[in-house]
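The instructor's notes for this session suggest beginning with a concrete chain rather than abstract definitions. Hand out the sequence below and ask the class to guess, before any prediction is shown, which regions might be ordered.
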Amino acid sequence: MGNKTIRNKKINKTDQPSVPVSTPVLISPQIWLPQVWVYRFIGNLFLLSIIFATAFGIFTIKSNLIGKHLGTLSNQFYLFSGNLGFNINDIIVSGRHHTDKQELEKAIGITRGDNIMELDLNELKQKLEKLPWIRKVNLQRTYFPNILQIDIQERDVKSIWQFENNFYPIDSEGNIIDSEYIPTSPLLLIVGDGAPENIKDLMLSIQDDPEIFKRIKVANFISKRRWNVVLDDIENGITIKLPEENIKQAWQKLLDLNKSVGLLKRKLTIIDLRLEGKVIVRLSKSELDSPQQLKEIKEHEI
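After discussion, reveal the predicted structure:
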């Protein structure tokens, strides 16, 4: 018959069709490299900006472009404001007693008709306070009327310093006033190298009793260390020797003795306060010649 006999064929495993098997795939984590170019770009940009700024500054200084433009604008502004009436109508100075008028006018350096808005008050204040007699200046400007008000506070002379046969007025702070001065009333005479710089501390220590303070005629700064003060008369007065330190305490001791025993009413030539806890006095010649005072000839402690 035409029937074909189909024989069983042994199928080996190797003959089976291959079936794709899914195997797990390991995905490594993503690694980002540092973006170095960004920082380099920023650094280069910063460096270029510095170079550009430096070059522009040098160019500006050489050409003075900004200064020229600002100067032109300021001149135009002051010209315009001057045309509107902002010119000085008057200059009023108060408080001047010793300051030389010509020196003051030279320091001010402005006149009526100048632009009042152009004034640099700080600069003018500094110039005026450099004058020898001026201690402080207050400036004020007003508009319509355009007035510059200059209020001067001059130095107050408290003593006269004698040094190398010259005489110099000294203010309350111990500053030397480099100007000629003729006193109109008696003033304390101070003597010695370095006396002006140290007179303020002395004054603060010996002003407790106004009556005794008025009797002081001379203050002599000895060896740049301490003071001798002379009462009543420059040549024949009472010389009070003060210590280097604790002047105020020593002076107070003198005042206490004067109240208790009338020390400064006696005829003395020297009162030595330099030793702590002691006061040594020396009698005047008239007292030495008096028989009833012979027992007090030698120096004694009080």
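Then share the key points. The first helix runs from residue 36 to 63. The two ends are 173 Å apart (CA to CA).
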